[in-house]
Design a protein that fits this description.
The protein is an alpha+beta fold and 489 residues long. The protein has helices at residues 42-51, 76-102, 105-118, 122-125, 137-147, 151-163, 346-365, 391-405; strands at residues 126-128, 172-180, 184-191, 197-200, 206-209, 212-216, 222-225, 232-242, 245-255, 260-262, 266-273, 279-282, 285-289, 295-303, 308-315, 318-321, 325-326, 334-337, 409-423, 429-441, 446-460, 470-475, 479-487. The longest helix is centred in the first third of the chain and has 27 residues, at 76-102. Residues 20-42 form the Zinc-ribbon domain.
Amino acid sequence: MTPLTFHAPANDQPGAQANFCPNCGQPVAPTDTFCPNCGYDLKAAAQAAGQVQPTQTQPTNASAPATRRPRQPWSKKKKRLWWGIGGLAVVLVAFFVWGSSHYSRAATLDRTISDIKSGQHLTADFTSASTDLTLNKQKLLPVNRYYSDHARDLSKLKADLASSGRSSDGNFVYEQTGRHFLFFPKYQISVSPVYPTVTTNHTGNVISLDNHKIATATTDSYTKKLSALVPGEYHLQSKGRIGGHNLTNSGDYHITSSKTYDLQLTTITVDLDTVPGSAVYLNGKKLGTADSSGTYRLKNEPWSSDMAVYAAYTSDIGKATTATTKLKKSDDGSYVDLDYKDMMAESDADELISNLFEAADGLARFGGIDDATDDDGDPMSDFFVNGASNAYYVDLKKMAKGYNDNDDLDSIGMDTDVTAVKPGPNGTSIVTFTVEYTFGLTNYDYDHVQDFQYTATVQPAGNDNSSQSYEIVKYGHAVKTDDRHEDED
């Protein structure tokens, strides 16, 4: 049978619908359950088509503005994250700025020099340049021991390390040895060890280093080479019994090279000649005081190659010190002079004072002159520092003219005597002298005699065109020592 063909109504007919079978394309009625042409299940196809919505394209209005999706606010977690990142960045920048300054070459050297002086953190400041020297706090103490008492040498060490990176003796090298926190340079002082040798002269002598026994002599010419040491100050000692006497040879040594130190046990007797009343020192330790003749006897003192003596004199105006003199073995049984630099001889002092009062005596006799002179024609003002402007010259001139103006005096005489010359500070001399004033009295048959004692501070003449080799800085108040009448001759 030939299937019937149905034609769909035109689209422009009222109520018309253009429905077609999705399988064969033939028109179907809206009420058909199956396609009358091919039998296709239209209801199932309609249900399936209803689940998938066709995509509709909305017309675009070109003139309408685009609508932006509103921005969502940050969560607290996100805010904390970004604040943390920002804070970390600030901390890192500050850390790098601080580290670049703190670990710089100059700043590290400043801290290291401070540590050397205080004895703190030395193991962090130093490293060893040799495999046979392992550093620890105890081994580095000799560095602190020396430089804490020698500020000038510590300043020189700092200057040498800052400029060339090496100490003048080559024992210390300032260099970069690593890094701090991977970013900043690490600077340390690299130490080259020294290997000193000690000798002693008697079997059984006990040798000590910093009060720790290191050897006992097995022969009368014993030598021992010490293990690696950090350059610095050490206390070496040899102790034994010789001729029934317990002897010790000890001293502090600044060991900076691999040289030999003699710790023989021998004695020395020396007469040290200096100014009476001076304190006498051996290796910085006071031994005693020079007697009235200026002698101090150093008797049976254990001799060492490092023995050094000096004298010091203390007065009301300060302290004077002689140069340090090293004692030699050959000085045993002899005299050693401990002289004060620039201290004037008593003969020079006597000449100075005598000529000064000779000029003053002339001014007292002939008051009309402005500035009297001594027999050599030297004006009185030349005897004083700063000449006529010196206050003590003015006083002496005033006194002499006062005697000349006194109508009760027929005559005046001034005789001087230097009784002592002592050393003063800074190259000065302390001159003690007496002046005997003899006053011839009008209408009396005797002379009035008075003795006064003075103490003057004298120094070598400066470049002020003075005619004198020495000049008076000042002198103290006169002290009357005698007052008497003497019959006229």
